[in-house]
Amino acid sequence: MWTCVAGDTQVLCASDLSGLYICNPVAGSLVHHLFVAGQSALCDGLAARIVSDTVRVWDTVSRRIIFKVRARNTLACALTHGAANATNATCMLATASLAGVAVWDLAAGQVVRTVPLVSESHPTYLLHERATCSFSPAGVYLVVGSAKGFEMWHIWTGKLVFHAAGHVPVFAPDGNRMAVGSNVWHLRGGRAAHCQWAISDPVHRHSLLVLSSRHVLGFHTRGTTAYTTVYSMETGQDICTVKRLWPGALSPDGRFFAGRRQCSVLLCTTSGGVCVACFTTPHCTIEWTFSPCSSFLFCIQSETGKTSSLYIADTPPPSCRIMLLLLAVHRRSTPAPPPELWHVWQSAAPAQRPRIITLG
């Protein structure tokens, strides 16, 4: 699976199969290969990787290791570039293991917070083979959990501020609001979260999946038909609904959202659900997301257990096109693209054809 973080021109792309790469989609070039395959975490300018019982953190600009810690049985790790308390902002690393969750100040090289795996009021959701941990966008909250549920802790007070079973929280870019199931919650500086609005539908189950500063992207099914709906962040009023579309991403400026229909990713307007671009890929796309600080759209595919593809597209109409395709494999093969990828070339003019890079 791919994890991506984009800046203005360069993109950090981490794959479980082939490691971390720094690429320039505009130039269609591979800038640097930072490390080999392994479970990774990314944020702007930093990359972390778990190898056996050691977690290493790289500065992706200088490409140097800036922090290293031994943590036995580490299940997951997370990075934040600016976890702010009352006096300063600092880079943080969280490591989750069977012994608990530790939050490290990278500059000081010491643990500033520990989170227990079992709270006094309810069982933990971390004791699961697919455990995860992540920071909220502003670095104020730490979320630990799995597919069973999650707990959310305030970094500086050490208080458990929210927990839920069977859901994963989705944060707005400012980190002050989050969606859990069909509810939007307002986070109030470490105090108990307040429910801002909820979708009431006794017939169909709704899931709110993506938040921007102005919109919320939701999803529900009627029979076998999927529906994607754009809601107002402030009021919860539905703005538009698109039929037969699986939702996935909202653009940072709030003008567009992306969704999947069969083997195509559609780019639609949030104001009326009008499709303005379509990216066709050879296999069913399993994940697609916008970069938070650029116009890049990432489309992630997994064709087989040994191959994973990442399409990087530029989205502002009318210049929408796939710019770069990274194909991660266990072992390096022929540099020519696989036969099923040739239609990506055939569907575009020669000057618009994406660069295809095989990694392994």
Describe this structure in words.
- A hairpin with a 4-residue loop joins β9 (74-84) and β10.
- It is globular and about 50 Å long.
- The protein is 1% helix and 56% strand.
- It is an all-beta fold.
- It is built from one helix and 33 strands.
- The strands form eight sheets. A five-stranded mixed sheet has the order 29-30-31-32-33, with no helix packed on it. The chain has a four-stranded antiparallel sheet with strand order 1-2-3-4, with no helix packed on it. A four-stranded antiparallel sheet has the order 5-6-7-8, with no helix packed on it.
Please supply descriptive tags for the structure shown above.
single chain, four-stranded antiparallel beta sheet, five-stranded mixed beta sheet, 360 residues
How do you describe this structure in short?
The protein has one helix at 342-346, and strands at residues 2-6, 11-15, 19-24, 29-35, 39-43, 46-51, 54-59, 64-70, 74-84, 89-97, 100-105, 110-115, 132-135, 141-146, 149-154, 160-165, 170-171, 177-180, 183-186, 194-198, 207-211, 215-222, 225-232, 238-243, 246-250, 256-261, 264-269, 275-280, 287-290, 296-304, 307-314, 321-329, 355-359. It is mostly beta strands and 360 residues long. It is globular, with a radius of gyration of 20 Å.
